[in-house]
Amino acid sequence: MTPHRRVQLSRDVVLTMLTVGALAETAWTVYLGWRLPRHYVTNHWDLAWVGIDSVQVLMLLLAAWAAWRRRAVLILFVSISGTLLLVDAWFDVTTARYGDFDQAALSLLIEVPAALVLFWIAHRTVKRLTGTWLADTDLAVLPVRRIPITPPRANGPSEPT
Fold first, then answer.
1. Residues 128 and 59 in one domain
2. What is the pLDDT of residue 98?
3. What is the span of the domain harbouring residue 132?
4. Does one domain contain both 65 and 139?
């Protein structure tokens, strides 16, 4: 089997898995919408909120590290950070009591634009990586966390290893 054929099979498997996953998630969402109670008291509410905020901080710090080191893994970290901000804004608004809605709206006005900026950073980084230097065979063997965002200089690597 040629390497190209193996890649094509893997792509087909991934597309099938993603489609089946989306259909299963749709069925689960419909079921939850039908069966979940309208009112529910939960334990560990504080742990859930502190947990999501802690992961946001971690992803933002990892994004800062990746940007500082000029690594392509920045795309992953800013994408996760932006997604977490949108999820946080969603839950802030949908779980706010009447008296807390002003705070939730303020959170929405901060977190959604911040998420859009993070997605813009990911987009710009992907655009930078689409240059021809990325096809360099030396870079193809590097793990993603080691691929530099900027092209290497003609007289050597972009930074010492």
1. yes
2. 80
3. 43-146
4. yes
Q: CA 118, CA 110: separation in Å to the nearest integer?
A: 13
Integer Cα distance of 48 and 50 in angstroms: 6
**Residues 24 and 65 both lie in one domain:** no
Q: Which tokens in the block code for residue 61? A: 């710090």
Domain check: are 14 and 65 in the same one?
no
Nearest-angstrom CA–CA distance, 70 and 130:
15
Whole-model pTM: value is 0.71
DSSP conformational letter for 151: P
CB atoms within 10 A of CB 51: 11
Average pLDDT over residues 61-76: 93
Report pLDDT digits (tens) over 108-146: 999 999 999 999 999 988 888 876 454 454 555 555 556
Q: Does residue 151 lie in a domain region?
A: no
Same domain, 51 and 128: yes
For residue 132, the Cα-to-chain-centroid distance in whole angstroms is 25
Q: Which residues are within 8 A (CB) of 60 and not within 5 positions of it... i.e. 6 or more apart? A: 77, 81
Are 91 and 131 contained in the same domain?
Answer: yes
**Is the distance from CB of 119 to CB of 78 less than 8 angstroms?**
yes
Tokens of 87: 């999820």
